[in-house]
């Protein structure tokens, strides 16, 4: 298992509330994810602040644009000192390769570059609505994950439900970052393809992105601790 597999998704519209949670967290216990809402509201300053506090930050902006634009965007992320950044695999292999090449000058200081395959909120019928020629979400995830690996990226964001298949097909070094994680008994919300933290790790997930079950809990630290303890077996 990876060191510190839990990545807490900081999806807040209130910076003070987010920082009140961050103040209680220890960079030795978890990593943090900043997504579209907080980045749009509070910008790179927030990311610099979190990096400055010693957290590994996953900048989850899911870039999806032409190769030149995405390459420049991932360089901007690297300049912020983030640990991980992501793009949409459906932006294509040329775009993904351009992003990877743009990070080469950062050497081992480059953020991990990850691609989103099929969003964990998507169902098979929603994929069909988009005209995706795959029988199941899983088939499309595998197709996009193979493309991502061929483009030289470090891994993919996927549902833990696909982790076993992806690990056995793509090898143990290819990182699997899995949202849609719900400790037993917690509300799935808008997620459709969910697993518990332990089941996700056993299936082959490297990093567990967990938002509302921690951030909306009465005692977020207790939930994080319970999750970390459950993973220690
Ligand atoms: O890239 C992601 O992190 C992501 C990809 C995906 O397919 N599904 C998904 O839920 N996410 C993110 O993972 C987090 C999940 O949050 P909760 O559903 O609150 O645990 C959110 O910040 C989502 O934006």
From TrEMBL:
GO terms for molecular function: orotidine-5'-phosphate decarboxylase activity. Substrate binds at residues 11, 33, 60-69, 120, 182, 191, 211-212. PROSITE patterns: OMPDECASE. It is an enzyme of class 4 (lyase). It catalyses: orotidine 5'-phosphate + H(+) = UMP + CO2. SUPFAM superfamilies: Ribulose-phoshate binding barrel. Pfam families: OMPdecase. Gene3D superfamilies: Aldolase class I (3.20.20.70). Its EC number is 4.1.1.23. InterPro entries: Aldolase_TIM, OMPdecase, OMPdecase_AS, OMPdecase_bac, OMPdeCOase_dom, RibuloseP-bd_barrel. Pathway: Pyrimidine metabolism; UMP biosynthesis via de novo pathway; UMP from orotate: step 2/2. The active site is at residues 60, 62, 65. GO terms for biological process: 'de novo' pyrimidine nucleobase biosynthetic process; 'de novo' UMP biosynthetic process. One of its GO terms (cellular component) is cytosol. It comes from the Bacteria. Keywords: Decarboxylase, Lyase, Pyrimidine biosynthesis. Catalyzes the decarboxylation of orotidine 5'-monophosphate (OMP) to uridine 5'-monophosphate (UMP). Belongs to the OMP decarboxylase family. Type 1 subfamily. Homodimer. This is Orotidine 5'-phosphate decarboxylase. It comes from Gallaecimonas xiamenensis 3-C-1. The lineage of its organism: Bacteria, Pseudomonadati, Pseudomonadota, Gammaproteobacteria, Enterobacterales.
